[in-house]
Amino acid sequence: MKNSTTLIYDGTFNGFLTAIYVAFDEKVNVSDIQRNSEHQNELFSEVKTIFTNVEKAKRVWNGIRNKNHIAITNIYFAYLSEVEGIELALYSYIQKLLEAKTGKSLNYSDGIVQRINQLSASVRKEKQHIEKRLGFQLTKDNVFFAGIEPGFDILPLISKYFRTARPNQEWLIYDMKRNYGIFYNQNHVELVSLSLKNIQFEKNHKSDAFLNHEYDYPTLWNEFVKTAKIKSLINKKLHQKRVQKRNTKYFISEKEAV
Questions:
Q1: What angle do CA 117, 123, 129 make, to 5 degrees?
Q2: Which residues of the chain register pLDDT less than 50?
């Protein structure tokens, strides 16, 4: 009997798909799949580090999509929920999908299938809520700015909607909880981080207040927009590092995620 193995990946969706590829290709007895930033040693499990391979990720993505296009959407949405243990749950879901005689014959009374479908629905609901309710404010350098703190990592899902809704404007939607944003320059969308250390929003509030739930976000953002030039705050070095860390293959062009 093979020893159980914990697969460690880089925290990107492509990295996760690569881990799935390795698990099936090498017939790994998977005990868990963890992000490298959250890895915890397990007493009775070997550890295997997965290096992201876009081609392998594509093969997994296309294979699942060809079998069940609804399932691949559910997988992507559920992954963005970031709930604890989601990777292992998705691995089990994918196993069940591939073992099914046809892609549409999943047992929808199965606990894992129900959980993934419910998480996907919750992420979709928040995505739609943000798209309908998000308000922008115009900054000094004519960038429309919106700050959010969503429960799920929904920025990759709302990019297409706002590119279509605001094609002739420069805008930035910033996730305060995850400290990254999507910036649209009327040509394309890119991931950005903001340099906020020297920005003071009110007399007693500095930029670290972004992550403090006790502060009044509307007031902070109003003060921020009045005083800030967004373009000068965009940190290109952090953008480049984050792009490398969060491979953006599915960030803009994900058709099934709309």
A1: 135
A2: 198-215, 238-258
Q: What is the separation of C-alpha 233 from the centre of its chain, rounded to a whole number of angstroms?
A: 23
Which two structure tokens, joined as six digits, stand for 209?
């207040």
Distance, CA of 24 to CA of 91 (rounded, Å): 10
Contacts with 1 (C-beta within 8 Å, 6 or more apart), sequence order:
29
Residue 218 has a CB neighbour count (10 Å cut-off) of 10
Give all strands (DSSP E) within 118-157, no chain letters.
137-138, 143-148
The DSSP bridge partners found for residue 191 are: 182
R_g over Cα of the chain: 20
Q: Is the pTM of this model over 0.85?
A: no
Spans of all domains in the chain: 5-126, 134-257
Give the pairing type, strands 200-202 and 205-206: antiparallel
- Residue of 198, 151, 200 whose CA lies nearest to 176: 151
Q: Are 154 and 129 in contact (CB under 8 A)?
A: no
For the chain, the maximum distance between any two Cα atoms, rounded to a whole number of angstroms, is 64
239: helix, strand or coil: helix
Q: Do the Cβ atoms of 247 and 13 come closer than 8 Å? A: yes
16-50 per-position pLDDT tens digit: 999 999 999 999 999 999 998 776 666 567 999 99
